[in-house]
Amino acid sequence: MKSAIVHNTRFVKQKAKELGFQFCGISKAEFLAEEAPRLEAWLKSGRHGQMKYMENHFDKRLDPSKLVPGAKSVVSLLYNYYPQKDLAKERPEHYKLAKYAYGEDYHHVIKDKLKVFFEALNAEVGAIEGRLFVDSAPVMERQWAEKSGLGWVGKNTLLINKQAGSFFFLAELIIDLPLEPDGPIKDYCGTCTRCVDACPTDAITPYALDASKCISYLTIELKEEIPTEFKDQMENWAFGCDICQDVCPWNRFSSPHQESAFQPSTELKALFNNNWQDLTEEVFREVFRKSAVKRTKWSGLVRNLNFLKKS
């Protein structure tokens, strides 16, 4: 039994590497007892804003066996999205888009890889039960990644990897296959507060986020008009925000991704170059046809741009 667990663990990590995941860590699938009171307090404080879906499936967020009966292991994966060129820095006076949205929608790109991963695992070890996740279900992915030693949850509440920073998508396999778990690593934020100090809306306090003040929330999740209190605080971010990552010292170790699907299109570069003057609904549909930006819809993006114009 022990030798099978060792073999299967090695196979999982090798397959993850073959599929382009830069880091892979494994946790024992168990109830996240330490996270339960933190999540409850965060929700009760209302810091999730209008993201009411965060209040749903409380038990499933904490207990992987509620998602996969008989779950034995959580395989956490990191997929790099740090771009060759930071479009926001190239034209700092223009409207900005979070780096994760430069290319095709990561949900589809990574989910396809997870399907291949799961099929390969079944072929190697026999039929197993499991589910695949990439920011699409009640899974506390940062906490699982931290538990598996892929990094630590920093003061900006994002997972930070000591070798490569934080510009990663997180994904998980929750499976009923026993594997060798990895242990967590220590927190390396130290006394640094650059992310806290740099946040223009004061959304970050050390190790806590008031999402209702976060620029990413305001430009993506919020469906109403952006409150006027945030005028002159948005720093030209039209969709998402990278400020707390850009200032993080650990991101000096970020290296450009090798995923062709994440390369910005010619049409997107044109939008950056002309400062979004030509963003009609037709242009939106064409430029963001395969993009995560579709989530905010044309009307939402126009709302954001109009708010920035008035700021």
From TrEMBL:
Pfam families: Fer4_16, QueG_DUF1730. Its EC number is 1.17.99.6. Residues 177-209 form the 4Fe-4S ferredoxin-type domain. [4Fe-4S] cluster 2 binds at C199, C214, C241, C244. Its cofactor is [4Fe-4S] cluster; cob(II)alamin. The active site is at D135 (proton donor). Keywords: 4Fe-4S, Cobalamin, Cobalt, Cytoplasm, Iron, Iron-sulfur, Metal-binding, Oxidoreductase, Queuosine biosynthesis, tRNA processing. It catalyses: epoxyqueuosine(34) in tRNA + AH2 = queuosine(34) in tRNA + A + H2O. InterPro entries: 4Fe4S_Fe-S-bd (IPR017896), 4Fe4S_Fe_S_CS (IPR017900), QueG (IPR004453), QueG_DUF1730 (IPR013542). Pathway: tRNA modification; tRNA-queuosine biosynthesis. Cob(II)alamin binds at R61, D135, N156, L159, L170, S216, C241, D242. TRNA binds at K223. Transmembrane segments: none annotated. [4Fe-4S] cluster 1 binds at C189, C192, C195, C248. It comes from the Bacteria. Binds 2 [4Fe-4S] clusters per monomer. It is found in: Cytoplasm. Its main location: cytoplasm. Signal peptide: none annotated. Belongs to the QueG family. Monomer. Catalyzes the conversion of epoxyqueuosine (oQ) to queuosine (Q), which is a hypermodified base found in the wobble positions of tRNA(Asp), tRNA(Asn), tRNA(His) and tRNA(Tyr). This is Epoxyqueuosine reductase. It comes from Roseivirga thermotolerans. The gene is queG.
